[in-house]
Amino acid sequence: MTVEKRSEPGTDVLIRKVDSHLAAVRAGLTGPELELAERLAHALRELVVSTARASAADRGRVRAAVHYFVLRRESRGRLLSVRSLAAAQRVVNRVVLQLGRPDLLVESRRDRPAPEPAPLAGDLADAEVAAR
């Protein structure tokens, strides 16, 4: 007989809200905006699961962040504006830090440092000569 692990009441509802909103956003966004929305959704899902048995205050913070992400709209015509995603990012990151989960911080593409270009073969030879 297999024992099924039951989730806490409300967790499934919040995760479904995040997932259905992300599905709707996928229809209207592309590129970095879509990537940001997906990272926000991932962080929110993780927070929902990790706070399922936390204090009511912590669960309330996560619930508020989910609702902010799902209900936030600042423009007409588009499902979700970039400005709105940035606002949701700030809210989610604030909750992440309040709950002591810096591993879930959501950075936008422009927040990340640019990758260093790979050194060319000539540059490597120059570096070896300089090191001698």
Query: Proportion of β residues?
Result: under 5%
Question: Oligomeric form of this entry?
Answer: single chain
The mean pLDDT is: 78
Percent range for helical residues?
55-70%
Description:
The protein has about 130 residues and is mainly α. Helix content is about 60%, strand content about 0%. The protein is built from five helices and no strands. α1 packs antiparallel against α2. It is globular.
Write the layout of secondary structure elements.
Elements: H1 11-26, H2 31-50, H3 56-71, H4 82-98, H5 121-131
Helix pairs in contact: 1-2, 1-3, 2-3, 2-4, 3-4
Characteristics of this structure?
5 helices, 132 residues, disordered N terminus, mainly alpha
Summarize the structure.
61% of the residues lie in helices and 0% in strands.
